[in-house]
């Protein structure tokens, strides 16, 4: 099996981040529609078939408290992490994906993930899976979110979208709310101008989030045992407070 970097490089035809070649956002997004329309299976490409081990550790240890809170997971794909938030007691856990086929897969995955769960019906009711574009989304209630979870989302976006990404988080989280950023892939051997996934650095998040209204709480490498297989040593966890 090739390395995960190779696998993820195959997830879409890479594009160069040059002004001359930069596609419009809708052209860029077409790659995601194609990937999901072509029937991305569990465990293929970026889909790891399970919630993030780091997220599960934060939730089970109480280092991240979500009881009664409202969580948002954009670019949720099959939505493993969305269900994890609801299973940990979130009052509402919303997963967004721009692709209808991704959300169809997430609905199916939610049912599978909750089969045999003692509170399956309650957890299921606390999740919302929506076809929506993060950049224009707001919840139907008009309420903001307490917790945001960004994993393999920033690296999925064209670099030209990054300032809007930070502004989007600021728009969707309430003051005092927490944003968790799983910083991936941190890999200096990769061409920074090619993606997705677009390589990122902890410094990039420090450039993007404070000007948008976030205060840094912590930013640390993730221990190898808390990364998905193939991602060890290339992930950091950032925790930020919305001011
Ligand atoms: C790299 S995948 C990660 C999926 C999921 N987080 C996971 O780890 O399996 C990125 C996802 O973001 C979705 N996406 C891309 N742009 C988006 C946008 N503007 N709004 C919502 N979802 C988007 C894609 O359809 C894709 O499912």
Automatic annotation (TrEMBL):
It comes from Tetradesmus obliquus. The keyword S-adenosyl-L-methionine applies. Transmembrane segments: none annotated. It holds the Pfam family TPMT. PANTHER family: PTHR32183, THIOL METHYLTRANSFERASE 2-RELATED. InterPro entries: SAM-dependent_MTases_sf, TPMT. This is S-adenosyl-L-methionine-dependent methyltransferase. Keywords: Methyltransferase, Phosphoprotein, S-adenosyl-L-methionine, Transferase. It comes from the Eukaryota.
